[in-house]
């Protein structure tokens, strides 16, 4: 085999003969002769005229060595040989490149190349080597370095594998035959370009007859059309991959594919029973759940969701059925109250159907089922039931107490039919005008009713069972008080004077009057007229308007002048109602003739004297009230001024400081000064009327007691009388304020153990006094105690006292 050598860019390649022995399927050795003449680049004729450059072409053959060599000796690959080698051993062969010296070894004398190790193509498929030939003696290069490649030839030493296995896949149940489920792919490390070592064929080891696999692509498909999830929902399918195109001796690997069948709505719902029974007490509240029912469906998820309905109309009016949040159960509720006494059993026809049917499986039958539910109503003790939800009764006013108003009726709805007692509910303790018969239910009045005071009365009647008083029911009762003609009609505003303008002509309407009546409108058809005896020679008459009003009409032919002598007239008017019996009243209307103000703008006539009040928007009464307020305010101001002037003109009790200094009597008992507000009540001392009765000083002049002892003035009655008169004057004088130097003591008390502090009451002998020396006395203090009233009196000299 001849191989061209690579030419270097800066030097020429010397010819190198390479003998390679290649192990192949047909032979184990091939000699390769590499000569410089044969390795020169050949210039093609077509390129001679193209820039005069030779075009080099390199053609190398590939050399093979079998992998996985297990022989005892190194595997021989080939031989290097140079034309300069004469066989005398002077040529040395050198090998370099990938694996040189370790994987590949060369005999330097002969040029034989061997593989020292077993090679693995899957690890490294080729090696690039370089060879040189040198003179052993001079080390001169005999051949330039030449490159060649050794390829490792593949053998079938790797089995197919599934790196990502095992696998999981899903397929809907009831899928058609041939439905693709999953595709598996095996890998083989052998050389796919050499022989059949990497040619894989797939087969199924487990999973038949339900599934199949494509031998070339590895696609798994369904092999049956009736795969039912409800029967079996999981399959483990084992797939084998074999190389060598599946021939005998090929290597194989396997993996598992876990196939799960997903659900489809292929199963209709079904009730476990054809009939059910349910007990419900009659007092079950409306809207509450009374029971649950469920139809089974072998499907899952939304394929098993249900809808329920009651198909018979009479039961659907009393009961209702809905689906729970999971969509599986039917919830039965009440939408009308149950009554054991009226109906003891209810039959419900219930139908359950799939909420999401699949049309592909409609041939399997209707996807719904029905059953019957027998509801038994349980008897319970119920409160009495009134014959009406509410009662409206009436009674005439002024009817005597005890008048029957009406009757309420309540019965026990239970089978026991217990007796019922009646009461009037009065939790707010309001006055009751009615009473009820405990056993009869008859409502009567307890007082005379007045429609004009209160026309409607609302009460609440209770009915309780005798056997079970806790069973109580209530009903509202409204009583209307009917009107009778018991109120006399009157003229509205009949006390006000009617203004008649002087310009009023005969036959002219002066004013329109209306009737007022507290009775109902049925008694309010009023009529007006003037008594016949008062219709003679009158200036006014009354015209009935037949609409509950009457017009006062002037009948004076001469009219009313400003110089007329009479300004006020009276008109007697009778007003009667239309009741049975009819009632009437007589009213005397006052009419005033005056010059009227013009432009009253539709209002009643107004005299000119009242014009300024009307223009200000004030009535006569309001104007009078304002004047009275002003007068009262002026009177209060004047009175307050006089009182202040009188108080300022009063003379003071003490005229000067000198008098105080000369008349002060000093005692050991010291006062608290002017700031002492706790020792006495100055207001009480100023006004003796505010004191208690026992504290009031008797200011009535009285005779001087002849029995009062007098040690100092014995025999001198005139002086004693003067002193007592002065004491009485001091007791009665309340104008002066109680200063520290002048204090008035009213009453000491009875039976004092200390006795009197006055020296006048002493019984011991006293030296006689010479009255001639009275003029030489200096100012002294004396304490005079007279009877029950004791007064501290400041004295100067005796002359001052007598004066």
UniProtKB/TrEMBL annotation:
Domain Cadherin: 82-162, 163-271, 272-386, 387-491, 492-612
One GO molecular-function entry: beta-catenin binding
Transmembrane segments: 611-640
SMART domains: CA
InterPro entries associated with the record: Cadherin (IPR039808), Cadherin-like_dom (IPR002126), Cadherin-like_sf (IPR015919), Cadherin_CS (IPR020894), Cadherin_Y-type_LIR (IPR000233), Catenin-bd_sf (IPR027397)
Taxonomy, superkingdom: Eukaryota
Membrane topology: Single-pass type I membrane protein
Keywords: Calcium, Cell adhesion, Cell membrane, Glycoprotein, Membrane, Metal-binding, Repeat, Signal, Transmembrane, Transmembrane helix
Localization (cell): Cell membrane
A GO BP entry: cell-cell adhesion mediated by cadherin
Function of the protein: Cadherins are calcium-dependent cell adhesion proteins.
PANTHER family on file: CADHERIN-18, CADHERIN-23
Name of this protein: Cadherin domain-containing protein
The organism of origin for this protein: Scophthalmus maximus
Name of the gene: LOC118311203
């Amino acid at each position: 085999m001849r191989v061209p050598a690579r030419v270097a860019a800066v030097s020429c390649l010397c010819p190198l003969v390479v003998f390679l022995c290649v192990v192949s399927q047909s032979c184990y050795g091939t000699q390769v002769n590499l000569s410089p003449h044969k390795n020169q680049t050949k210039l093609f004729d077509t390129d001679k005229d193209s820039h005069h450059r030779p075009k080099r072409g390199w053609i190398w053959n590939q050399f093979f060595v079998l992998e996985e060599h297990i022989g005892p000796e190194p595997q021989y690959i080939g031989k290097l040989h140079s034309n300069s080698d004469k066989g005398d051993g002077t040529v040395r062969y050198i090998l370099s490149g990938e694996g040189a010296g370790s994987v590949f070894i060369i005999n330097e004398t002969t040029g034989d190349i061997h593989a020292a190790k077993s090679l693995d193509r899957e690890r490294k498929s080729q090696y690039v080597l370089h060879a040189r030939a040198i003179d052993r003696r001079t080390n001169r290069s005999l051949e330039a370095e030449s490159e060649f490649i050794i390829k490792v030839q593949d053998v079938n030493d790797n089995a197919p594998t599934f790196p990502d296995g095992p696998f999981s896949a899903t397929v809907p149940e009831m899928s058609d035959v041939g439905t693709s489920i999953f595709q598996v792919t095996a890998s083989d490390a052998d050389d796919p370009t050499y022989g059949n070592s990497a040619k894989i064929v797939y087969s199924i080891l487990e999973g038949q007859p339900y599934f199949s696999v494509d031998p070339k692509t590895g696609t798994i498909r369904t092999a049956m059309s009736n795969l039912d999830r409800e029967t079996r929902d999981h399959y483990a399918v084992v797939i084998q991959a074999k190389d060598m195109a599946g021939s005998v001796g090929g290597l194989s690997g396997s993996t598992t594919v876990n196939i799960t069948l997903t659900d489809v709505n292929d199963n209709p719902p079904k009730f476990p029973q054809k009939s059910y029974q349910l007990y419900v007490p009659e007092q079950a509240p409306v809207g509450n759940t009374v029971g649950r029912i469920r139809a089974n469906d072998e499907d899952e998820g939304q394929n098993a969701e249900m809808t329920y309905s009651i198909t018979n109309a009479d039961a659907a009016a009393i009961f209702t059925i809905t689906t729970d949040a999971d969509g599986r159960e039917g919830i039965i509720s009440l939408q009308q109250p149950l009554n054991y006494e009226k109906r003891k059993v209810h039959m419900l026809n219930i139908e359950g159907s799939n909420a999401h049917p699949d049309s592909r499986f409609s041939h399997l039958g209707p996807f719904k089922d029905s059953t019957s539910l027998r509801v038994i109503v349980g008897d319970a003790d119920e409160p009495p039931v009134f014959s009406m939800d509410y009662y409206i009764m009436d009674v005439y006013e002024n009817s005597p107490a005890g008048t029957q108003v009406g009757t309420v009726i309540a019965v026990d709805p239970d089978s026991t039919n217990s007796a019922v007692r009646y009461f009037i509910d009065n939790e707010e303790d309001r006055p009751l005008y009615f009473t009820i018969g405990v056993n009869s239910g008859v409502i009567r009045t307890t007082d005379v009713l007045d429609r004009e005071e209160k026309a409607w009365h609302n009460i609440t009647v209770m009915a309780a069972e005798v056997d079970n008083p806790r069973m109580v029911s209530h009903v509202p009762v409204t009583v209307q008080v009917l009107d009778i003609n018991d109120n006399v009609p009157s003229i509205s505003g009949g006390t006000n004077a009617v203004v008649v303008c002087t310009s009023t002509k005969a036959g002219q309407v002066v004013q329109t009057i209306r009737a007022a009546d507290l009775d109902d409108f049925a008694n309010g058809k009023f009529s007006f007229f003037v008594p016949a005896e008062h219709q003679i020679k009158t200036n006014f008459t009354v015209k009935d308007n037949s609409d509950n009003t009457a017009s006062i009409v002037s009948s004076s032919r001469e009219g009313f002048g400003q110089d007329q002598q009479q300004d006020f007239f009276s008109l007697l008017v009778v007003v009667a109602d239309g009741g049975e019996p009819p009632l009437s009243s007589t009213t005397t209307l006052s009419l005033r003739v005056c010059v009227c103000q013009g432009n009253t703008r539709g209002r009643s006539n107004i005299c000119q004297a009242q014009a300024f009040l009307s223009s200000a928007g004030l009535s006569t009464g309001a104007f009078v009230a304002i004047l009275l307020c002003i007068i009262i305010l002026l009177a209060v101001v004047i009175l307050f001024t006089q009182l202040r002037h009188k108080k300022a003109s009063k003379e003071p009790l003490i005229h000067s400081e000198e008098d105080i200094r000369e008349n002060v009597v000093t005692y050991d008992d010291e006062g608290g000064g002017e700031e002492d507000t706790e020792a006495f009540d100055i207001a009480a001392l100023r006004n003796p009327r505010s004191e208690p009765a026992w504290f009031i000083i008797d200011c009535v002049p009285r005779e001087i007691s002849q029995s009062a002892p007098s040690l100092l003035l014995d025999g001198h009655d005139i002086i004693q009388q003067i002193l007592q008169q002065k004491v009485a004057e001091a007791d009665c004088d309340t104008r002066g304020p109680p200063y520290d130097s002048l204090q008035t003591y009213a009453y000491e008390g009875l039976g004092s153990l200390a006795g009197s502090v006055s020296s006048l009451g002493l019984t011991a002998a006293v030296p006689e006094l010479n009255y001639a020396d009275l003029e030489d006395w200096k100012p002294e203090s004396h304490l005079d105690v007279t009877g029950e009233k004791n007064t501290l009196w400041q004295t100067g000299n005796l002359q001052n006292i007598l004066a």
